[in-house]
Amino acid sequence: MNIDLTTPISEEAAARLQVGDTVTLTGYILCGRDAVLPRVIRMAEEGKAEELGAELKGNVIFHTAVSPAGVGPTSSNKLEIESSIEPLSRLGVKMHLGKGQLHPETVAALDKYNAVYAVIPPVTALLGEKTLEQKLIAFPELGMEALYQLKVDHYPAIIAAAHGRSIYEQES
Fold this sequence. Notes:
By secondary structure, the protein is an alpha/beta fold.
């Protein structure tokens, strides 16, 4: 099923997403990877999430850096990234975008917090024309790995983990 989603993503919209659905995202999303995601979690746990300049609840985290060459997914199963998925989901993030297979424990954590993981093809040129704005919002010292907010229009992705299931599971 092809689903158009606008951010922020509601609890109801997240609950309807199923493994294998194709989605397009429109609205504001956050970009972060290994260097920044642990900092975002630490700030939220310290009660300083509002200092990030963006709401986490209902948001999307795209596992990418933002560079002059554009954006493209990084591997979501890197330790710092995958270990951020459960706490960010607990904080209200509804979708994590990246590439690669997640561990079963992470898939279960997504289910627990009514969040999903979607894979996005590494197609920097396509995403470039669908990125309307970009803004550095936190941790400028990290350069292209800082926390960015993008305004996107119909970003394509495929739901890869939802409701305790993963697209990477072997059928028995």
